[in-house]
Amino acid sequence: MTAPLMPKATAVWLVDNTSLTFDQIAEFCGLHALEVKGIADGDVAMGIKGQDPVTAGQLSRDEIKRGEADAGYKLQISKPKHELPEPKKTGRKGPRYTPLSRRQDRPGAIAWLVRYHPELTDGQIGKLVGTTKPTIQSIRDRSHWNMANITPVDPVTLGLCTQLELDAAVQKAARRREREAKKAGKSVEDMGTLAPATQALADAAAGKTTLSDDFGQVMDDDDRQDRDRRDGASPDVDSVFSSLGGSSVANNEDEDDKY
């Protein structure tokens, strides 16, 4: 400990109860000399109650007397009677904090990650965009309350994560897939090819799909039907029934409710 716990309150007490110079008080409290002068003039720290450093065990009476006798003397803070261990530095745990102005963008970012990087786990997606597993699962199975209005958007573009963080998560997922393939005695190609984030962005810009589940196909069908409705064209009956038939049996009831 090199400074008192309440520097301004301590400075207020020293100004009011001692004859120490402004420089001495500023040096001890970690303040600027002009700030201490402002405290003495009543322009700074108005309304702050003084904190007695002697009672708090941060300064002794003898130390104050030495400082008052010698204007050039630097006050030394008292050593604490009990040494407290420094807190261990640990990595950030839990989901990333997302500002309120960007929280409405998280569903679109989740849909983009689920669509173009299905190899990412729910935990990885939660750390990237700062969300919870139930929210991710609701978008995976299309049970989210606002699913009809969710548009997949790159989380890097939205500012929810950096490109380096996304690439690191994809590489980690690729290494996990390689371990799973090795354990199962299969090649990585047999278990699905993982595309890096840069390739996924290029494929998305070119209109290509790199989907490995029904989620991406359903999203493509929804986008195409939305474009047809905006253009005034009626949806093709065959395409509608083909999109329904292309999904798994477990998702038929959800798709029927949607349509």
Characterization of this structure:
Residues 240-251 have a biased composition (Polar residues). The chain is 54% helix and 0% strand. It has 259 residues and is mostly helical. It has three domains: 7-69, no CATH class; 92-211, no CATH class; 213-244. The model is unreliable at 208-215 and 243-259 (pLDDT under 50).
Mean pLDDT: 76
What's the count of strands?
Answer: 0
Give the helix/strand class.
Answer: mainly alpha
Instruction: Kindly report the oligomeric state of this protein.
Output: single chain
Uncertain regions: pLDDT < 50 for 5+ in a row? 208-215, 243-259
C-alpha end-to-end distance = 67 Å
- Share of residues in helices: 40-55%
Largest beta-sheet characterization: none
Number of domain units:
3
Write down the secondary-structure element order: HHHHHHHHHHHHHH
What's the alpha carbon Rg, rounded to whole Å?
32 Å
Strand content of the residues, in percent?
A: under 5%
- H/I helix tally: 14
Shape: elongated
